[in-house]
Design brief:
With about 425 residues, the protein is an alpha/beta fold. The chain is built from 15 helices and 13 strands.
Length: about 425
């Protein structure tokens, strides 16, 4: 069978989604090799997947830890350093990938939308590639805000001007990466380009979202496929082995792997839950120490843990508080659990805006205090319209196809080197 290379940013959620897709492809007999800086090997836990480290001179061991620390606090100068790190990673991959891909003899690439190098190099070498949106899709359309923007959907002139001006500001901030993309595209003799959305596959584009969790789209390419979350084959979900009282409402709170250190926000959430006499399960993903965990218990949390079985927690919860991570939101749709999105960075403001627009939850500022959080939670717990909307949206997710359908799309696109139109692969 075929040998495919995977190029994705070295972030946990992106690598986990790509691993799930890789697993579905390996089940079909294909070989998979991930290519990234050396530290990213720790994010791969499937022994069947090969890993090829690159960039040892520019990205030696220990580099990723600094980047992850910056992404956990992406504000001010830290945000500028994150952008510089992303540009440096794209530069390194554009430099290293051609020789590595030739040496490995791959038949095609599976490329995360957030790493432009994969698409630029694949096109430059004449290799087929498929783009995967592990976060909100970067595909742009006139009249829509970028996925990193917090704006509501509207089509009045003021909103359209806001969308356009914010896109210009974003492109200015990302100009360093844009110069890297433009330089290497020119080196390969490709058409001019300078942004992520200009580096997507003409064969197939796969998204972890579903149409119900997006603003109205009118200009997606015919080869765009919304397949829902890329996850390993489903397993039975066991009830949580925690002291949860079934007679009282349960709220589940998680801020993901990069934002789990935000003690003050967790404390405000705990106090809000105590004021409503609801139970609270906090999963901080290793971001808090024992002292902070105990202080959350004193502030009103029922249980505080590093990691919890998220599908199980959501199945038992009457509401979830999340940073707006796409994985948690999709899990909440699957379990039909109303969402309070408290976005912090990256595409989370865009996810939160879409949660509110779709009617499956509410959003609040990360600077919200106890009272504001309690008011939002109370609305989720007492108003049936959020669960009714989730009940209407959930079947679309169940029918999306997930990793198995995505694998079929990848196999056909890379094997035929022709566009796979939406609906061709069940």
């Amino acid at each position: 069978m075929s040998h495919y290379a995977v190029v994705a940013p070295p972030f946990y959620s992106h690598m986990q989604a790509m691993q799930a897709l890789a697993g579905a492809l390996m089940a079909r007999g294909h070989r998979i090799t991930f290519i990234q800086q050396e530290d990213a090997s720790t994010l791969i836990n499937d022994p069947r997947i090969a890993f090829c480290p690159v960039g040892r001179n520019s990205h030696p061991a220990g580099t990723l830890a600094r980047t992850l620390k910056l992404t956990g606090n992406p504000a001010g100068f830290s945000l500028l350093r994150v952008i510089r790190d992303l540009s440096d990673s794209t530069e390194m991959l554009c430099r290293e990938l051609p020789g590595v891909l030739e040496r490995l003899g791959v038949d095609g690439l599976i490329v995360d939308q957030m790493e432009a190098a994969g698409g630029v190099v694949a096109e430059g070498l004449g290799l087929p590639f498929v783009s995967v949106a592990c976060a909100l899709p970067v595909n742009r359309e006139p009249g829509l805000p970028l996925p990193v923007m917090p704006f509501n959907y509207d089509q009045d002139p003021r909103a359209l001007r806001l969308y356009q001006s914010s896109s210009q500001v974003y492109d200015w901030l990302m100009r360093g990466q844009g110069r890297v993309i433009a330089r290497h595209a020119q080196r390969f003799g490709l058409a001019p380009r300078e942004a992520l959305h200009q580096c997507l596959s003409p064969l197939a584009q796969i998204s972890q979202t579903i149409p119900a969790l997006d603003f109205p789209r009118r200009e997606l390419p015919a080869c765009f496929h919304a397949v829902g979350p890329l996850r390993p084959a489903s397993r039975a979900v066991a009830p949580l082995a925690l002291p949860i009282d079934p007679a009282k409402p349960l709220v589940f709170a998680s801020l993901g792997t990069l934002q789990g250190h935000r003690f003050r926000l967790f404390r405000a959430i705990a106090r809000a839950c105590r004021s409503l006499d609801t139970q609270l399960l906090v999963a901080h993903c290793g971001g808090l120490n024992a002292s902070q965990s105990n202080r959350l218990l004193e502030s009103g949390a029922t249980c505080v843990t590093d990691f919890a079985d998220q599908p199980a927690a959501l199945r038992q919860a009457q509401a979830v508080i999340t940073h707006g991570g796409l994985n948690t939101v999709m899990d909440a749709i699957a379990s039909q659990t109303p969402i309070l999105a408290v976005p912090i960075a990256f595409d989370q403001p865009g996810v939160a805006a879409r949660v509110a627009y779709s009617g499956i939850g509410r959003r609040a500022s990360r600077f919200s205090g106890r009272r504001a959080l309690a008011d939002n939670l109370q609305a989720l717990l007492e108003n049936d319209r959020y669960r009714q909307r989730l009940a209407a949206v959930s079947p679309q997710l169940q029918a999306a196809g997930g990793a198995a359908r995505a694998a079929g799309i990848v196999e056909r696109a890379l094997g035929s080197r022709r566009p796979v139109v939406a609906g061709e692969v069940a």
